[in-house]
Amino acid sequence: MEIVILVSLLSLYCDFTDAECLVISPARLVVKYGDPASSNCSSDTPVQMGWEATQGGTDLTDKEVKSLNWRVDSVTDWNIKPTCYTEGGQCLKQLNITVYKLPDSVSISYRTYPDPMVEKHHYQLQCLVQNIAPIERLRVTFYKVNTTGEQTELDTQQKSKDNIKTPENGAYTLDFTPSRDDDRAQLWCSAMLDLGPEGPQPPPVMESDRLNITVLYKPLITMSPGCFSMRITEGDTLSLNCSANGNPAPSYGWLLPQSAPAPNTTEERSVVTITNIAKSHSGEYTCIARNPPGNSTCTVNVEVTVDYLPIIAGLAAAAVVILLVVSCFIYSSYYKHTRMGHYQLKDRLPRRHKNKQVVHHNGMDQSFM
């Protein structure tokens, strides 16, 4: 038990004296491969000190000093570990140094070329970062920008801290499932070497070239007036306009009631137009848009109704005409019966006076009072 306590006290003493006897400034260096580097080792009291390093190392000083500088014109050792020490190794301080290298290139590609992409299918992208150190401080981000310029961050990845100091190649993959909105979008990746506050600010970033993508997708129909039931009055004009957004451009077909006329189909749309529509044209009108990724349908249930108001108005007008004719006939018949049926000729001769005498004179009748 006493031995354990003694060892613990000795360890605390050594840590305390080590912290007090030597101070390295700066305590941490981030140096680009091939660049110069330097750091200073100092002590509160004069001591003999030296630097042990694969580059820039120095032996113990001949006399006691309070500081000793370590300097290298070009750091070319990835595992360099400069250590300041005093006579007899009583105090040791190691400089925390990170040697880094920016990547030679950053590229994005398909792991399996899709030729071209199809919506809702799964693909794998790869971002390759070549010859970078230390790879554990590398962060790779995948991006997408659509045709409107909207940028989206898809994923960010970082290798595990495997403490590899020398340059490595890093391959980062992304599972990507495109949608129709991704057609003609761009994909790329960026590599950022984040070396902390002692490293270059802002952290250096290298981007890949942009990958232009084409996405095939099945048609999406837009129907005017719409995919639903509609009513139309007999004698009016029916117009159904079927168009679809698809890649590649879709072809069109129709399923119509048997009595309906053939539609007018073009490369961009398909139109059904029926003038003076009849009751027999009622039924389902189904537009079909097709391309290699698939097909879509849109059905309009057309009901042709009869407008009875004009018929009623016509019947009413006919009834009025008939009534007038009958009235005229009745009136005419009544007039003849009352005015002509009781007519007497004697009522039309002149009346003679009771005392009137008729005298024949020279062959002529003459009347005298």
UniProtKB/TrEMBL annotation:
Residues 156-165 have a biased composition (Basic and acidic residues). InterPro entries: ICAM_VCAM, Ig-like_dom, Ig-like_dom_sf, Ig-like_fold, Ig_sub, Ig_sub2. The gene is LOC115178128. Pfam families: Ig_3. The chain crosses the membrane at residues 308-331. SMART domains: IG (SM00409), IGc2 (SM00408). Residues 1-19 form the signal peptide. One of its GO terms (biological process) is cell adhesion. GO terms for molecular function: integrin binding. Keywords: Disulfide bond, Immunoglobulin domain, Membrane, Signal, Transmembrane, Transmembrane helix. Residues 152-172 are annotated as: Disordered. It comes from Salmo trutta (Brown trout). This is Immunoglobulin superfamily member 10-like. PANTHER family: INTERCELLULAR ADHESION MOLECULE, INTERCELLULAR ADHESION MOLECULE 5.
